[in-house]
């Protein structure tokens, strides 16, 4: 009986050892090595001896150096973020509106509160609310800027019409900055000027004529074509060409525009304005040439401008001239050449020319005779 028990115990021990070996064979170590008989053998070494490899920190014999934890795979991180975003609760429009209204009200209240501050009144010793001075200065600056913007002038709607009006007032125009090869031919100028109204090219054209780079024949041929054009702006540019280049031909062109254009048109008014510049002694020789011509309308206009010129020299009774004799001599020298022409025009077949010539002749005789009498009495 006893022998059977020992046999059973020995069988159980052998089975236990065998099972233990099987378990150890299927269990991997940290270095993924299986336990076997060779690995179970202990190395021969002295007691308490520790072998240290160079470049390795001291530690337990046979222990592996600490390793950094492996970073999480990028793919898993991105998948996780997508999963979180997909399962995020979404607010409905009904839930958003109260939140937006509350946020707007809170922002408005904060803005109002930021504009005010609490201070202690030195008289009463109580706290009072007042607007911050810094904000008040900002508002004043804003008002000033707004006022400056309102004062800003807008550019004229019609640049060409405005430029011609300025030329009527000054009798000239600013120098052109556009470069153009000299001695440009007729056809080239016609293409530059008559294709479309061009203020810059027209100024160059006038400047080249004044510099003798464009002949009078080419100049006045194109001026007449510009005035005969149906476009108003083109007519205005033609009037400007004739207006800033005083001559007998320019006077005749301007008088023709005044005669044919409508009474209230801008082109006619601009031509009349340029004609008024001839009422000076500088252009007296042009007036004499026009009055000697045969066209009644240009004779009438020239006589009217002469009358305006003479009236500038009528003596002021309240302020008599300092040297009446010298003034009478100058007036006689300046206006006596017109007396013979005016006498001839008083016999014109045109009633308006006769009337205007008689009036202008009387004006000249009055200033010459009055100043002559004044000089003899003194």
Indicate the radius of gyration in whole angstroms. 55 Å
Tally the beta strands.
2
Helix content: 55-70%
How confident overall, as mean pLDDT?
76
Number of helices: 16
The major beta sheet can be summarized as: 2 strands, antiparallel
End-to-end gap: 186 Å
Structure class: mainly alpha
Shape: elongated
- Low-pLDDT ranges: 30-36, 143-157, 370-378
Fraction of residues in β-strands: under 5%
Report the order of strands and helices: HHHHEEHHHHHHHHHHHH
Task: Offer a concise description of the structure.
This protein is mostly helical. It is built from 16 helices and two strands. Helix 6 (159-170) packs parallel to helix 12, helix 11 (248-260) packs antiparallel against helix 12 (266-275) and helix 13 (284-291) packs antiparallel against helix 14 (296-311).
């Amino acid at each position: 009986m006893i022998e059977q028990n020992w046999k059973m115990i020995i069988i159980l021990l052998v089975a236990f050892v065998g099972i233990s070996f099987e378990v150890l064979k299927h269990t991997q170590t940290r270095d993924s090595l299986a336990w076997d008989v060779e690995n179970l053998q202990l190395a021969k070494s002295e007691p308490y001896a520790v072998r240290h490899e160079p470049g390795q920190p001291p530690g337990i014999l046979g222990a592996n150096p600490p390793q950094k934890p492996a970073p999480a795979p990028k793919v898993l991180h991105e998948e996780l973020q997508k999963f979180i975003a997909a399962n995020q609760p979404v607010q409905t429009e009904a839930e958003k509106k109260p939140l937006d209204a509350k946020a707007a009200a809170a922002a408005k209240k904060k803005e109002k509160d930021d504009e005010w501050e609490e201070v202690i009144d030195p008289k009463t010793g109580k706290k009072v609310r007042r607007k911050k001075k810094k904000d008040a200065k900002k508002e004043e600056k804003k008002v000033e800027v707004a006022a400056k913007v309102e004062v800003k002038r807008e550019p004229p709607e019609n640049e060409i019409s405005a430029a011609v009006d300025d030329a009527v007032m000054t009798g000239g125009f600013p120098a052109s900055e556009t470069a153009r090869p000299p001695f440009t031919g007729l056809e080239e100028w016609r293409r530059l000027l008559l294709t479309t109204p061009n203020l810059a090219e027209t100024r160059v054209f006038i400047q080249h004529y004044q510099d003798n780079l464009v002949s009078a024949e080419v100049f006045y041929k194109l001026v007449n074509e510009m005035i005969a054009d149906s476009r108003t702006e083109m007519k205005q540019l033609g009037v400007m060409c004739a207006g800033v280049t005083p001559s007998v031909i320019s006077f005749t062109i301007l008088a023709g525009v005044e005669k044919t254009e409508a009474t209230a048109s801008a082109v006619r008014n601009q031509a009349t304005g340029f004609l008024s510049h001839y009422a000076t002694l500088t252009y007296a020789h042009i007036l004499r040439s026009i009055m000697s011509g045969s066209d009644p309308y240009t004779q009438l206009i020239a006589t009217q401008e002469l009358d305006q010129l003479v009236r500038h020299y009528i003596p002021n009774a309240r302020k008599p001239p300092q040297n009446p004799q010298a003034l009478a001599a100058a007036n006689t020298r300046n206006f006596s050449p017109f007396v013979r022409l005016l006498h001839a025009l008083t016999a014109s077949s045109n009633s308006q020319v006769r009337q205007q010539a008689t009036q202008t002749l009387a004006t000249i005789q009055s200033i010459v005779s009055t100043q002559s009498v004044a000089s003899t009495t003194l």
